[in-house]
Amino acid sequence: MPADPMSTALLPAGLHDVLPNEASHEADTVERLLAEFAGLGYQRVKPPLVEFEDSLLSGSGAAMAQQTFRLMDPLSQRMMAVRADITPQIARIATTRLKNEPRPVRLCYAGQVLRVKGSQLRQERQFTQVGVELIGPLQPEADAEVILLAVQALEAVGVPHLSVDLCVPTMVSRICRGLGLGEEETRHLRAALDRKDAAGVAAVGGPAAPLLQTLMAASGPAGRAMQALGALALPEAAETDRRRLTETLRLLRAAKPDLTVTIDLVEHRGFEYQTGLSFTLFSRDASGELGQGGRYRAGARPDAEEDGEPSTGFTLYMDTLLRVVPATQAARRVFVPHGTDWAVAGKLRAEGWVTVAGLSPAADPVAEARRLQCGHRLADGSVQPVD
Amino acid sequence: MPADPMSTALLPAGLHDVLPNEASHEADTVERLLAEFAGLGYQRVKPPLVEFEDSLLSGSGAAMAQQTFRLMDPLSQRMMAVRADITPQIARIATTRLKNEPRPVRLCYAGQVLRVKGSQLRQERQFTQVGVELIGPLQPEADAEVILLAVQALEAVGVPHLSVDLCVPTMVSRICRGLGLGEEETRHLRAALDRKDAAGVAAVGGPAAPLLQTLMAASGPAGRAMQALGALALPEAAETDRRRLTETLRLLRAAKPDLTVTIDLVEHRGFEYQTGLSFTLFSRDASGELGQGGRYRAGARPDAEEDGEPSTGFTLYMDTLLRVVPATQAARRVFVPHGTDWAVAGKLRAEGWVTVAGLSPAADPVAEARRLQCGHRLADGSVQPVD
């Protein structure tokens, strides 16, 4: 939605009114996505907009602390926080209220989140967040399921030319640790990798440099990347990551041979809280990411890698998404003149018309139909075009 | 949703997680209601959760000032407010961003609101608000349209035994003014009427007492109430209210002869911001009100009765409503064992099944299907019951 001057004057920056057509387009798209999730047994939950701060910002929620509005609760005299991300709420629900449900737990959600500041890329401060979480299973089958579900849901709402970029954000740090690099060296190396700076990697990579340069160069189409990765001698700690990536890719190809998959073997940014195989969803027609997901541990304390339940999931970014989802055909509006029986208009609605009633007699019903943006009108008992 | 001890411990009072089944029941119901609104040309809009305080709490929004959470906006250094009511936002959109759209403007919405405290009756502090606004028209046809739309939408989601209670909250004050009562006397009289205290009305009503006692006694089934009202000599100022009520009732009966309509001729509480014909929706099966609506002036300054645009609309209370909306039949879950082709499961989904995939081989597929709450499983290429 482009910000118009009037909206800018009335509303705080990054907050806007979604007007007719756009609002129903968004709501329809959200419900169609959720219907796809439901088809694979993902059950909808709806956490509240506000929670106690210490609950909302614990574990993986801590990442959003700077972006979270606080509210004092007059009832409990405790600080509350307005959610800036729904994912930690779903993990909380799964690991507390649904802790006795059989594993894996499959959950999905759609809702609004609020952030203190927009980013340079995204000025918005309120987002519609839509996603799924699959809590409990360790198997690559779980990684494949959520990726395939994301792809299927995006295809179902009409997003063209999809591709999935896989990464394993833990692999680089495991390689570095396996080769005996210190924390400081690893941080420098990360910065060089984030810049895709091969010379920098060579300069600060020490014993890991050759391996990481190969990984960096091999990133791209899945076939080539996996061939390069397969030929490398990796430290034992990174073996699990390679095996999971290989197996997930095999499952994706078996299920959907025509899916475009790329692999970034050194990706890390934006996945700081992921604990294993992760992915980003793109469309050739969209300018940014459509969504992102990956492994994490639900209910884990910060920095306790083996804590919590193994989980994966994804979040779709509705703002980017809606720019590439084709609008569903708007229902046709028929002007129903003043005095028309309620039941007669009801019959038209049952046939798929939107009936726009005249609330007083109109001297020129054709002009009145046009004024009310109706392409048709009811006259002499039948629907007639007004153009 | 009953509060369980765990939820109480984790979340602030009046805020809760909506869990599987309940959450999809709510979302489905909301979308079905909005589809009914769309059928009569009501277009969906989606205002933000947060606005500048002075915008959100101006005009009719001022009523919610005590119930509204404030947030400081770090970008503008101005105070923002989290909406406690969506209605003023829709009026703002209609009278500013959509001010050049042809009248009447028909808008609808669904969204979350947050309140500082729950009431004794409703402990919840977050509500799902769903409703419509019809902005621009003065005619009783507009009053009838929104009432009939509310009834039709509630019937469409399966609410049984509906009734509508009409009132004209301006009538008593117009009668009092017409008969020369002062502000103080009118206030005492209001209190007596609110208590349905006929002796009190006699004691403080002065010249208005006989008229108001008759109105109080006549409240009830529409036919009897209108007969009593028709026989009264009203001050000129109250004549418009009587005419509008009579005409609206005639339109309701013509459209829907079997609708149960009652009339409260002295009702006032809960309609402090209404400027004319108002209504409350009930079901014999529900313990509270399902929704409420009525006349107001969109974009009016407080206490400027003739300011703004004549409007009407209603809000449905989803918490009460969901208790009487029958759950839609849950889709049947079929367990799809590990290794099943993605396409095979997709075919089952196309037939209406929810497919729950096994993520690893199961020694006893029947037991595994049961554990995952599936009534069926895929075996030997066909769907089989597991019980």
UniProtKB/TrEMBL annotation, chains A, B:
GO terms for molecular function: glycosyltransferase activity; histidine-tRNA ligase activity. One of its GO terms (cellular component) is cytoplasm. The keyword Amino-acid biosynthesis applies. Required for the first step of histidine biosynthesis. May allow the feedback regulation of ATP phosphoribosyltransferase activity by histidine. This is ATP phosphoribosyltransferase regulatory subunit. It comes from Azospirillum thermophilum. It is found in: Cytoplasm. The gene is hisZ. PANTHER family: HISTIDINE--TRNA LIGASE, MITOCHONDRIAL-RELATED, HISTIDYL-TRNA SYNTHETASE. Residues 30-337 form the Aminoacyl-transfer RNA synthetases class-II family profile domain. Heteromultimer composed of HisG and HisZ subunits. Belongs to the class-II aminoacyl-tRNA synthetase family. HisZ subfamily. Keywords: Amino-acid biosynthesis, Cytoplasm, Glycosyltransferase, Histidine biosynthesis, Plasmid, Transferase. This function is generally fulfilled by the C-terminal part of HisG, which is missing in some bacteria such as this one. It holds the Pfam family tRNA-synt_His.
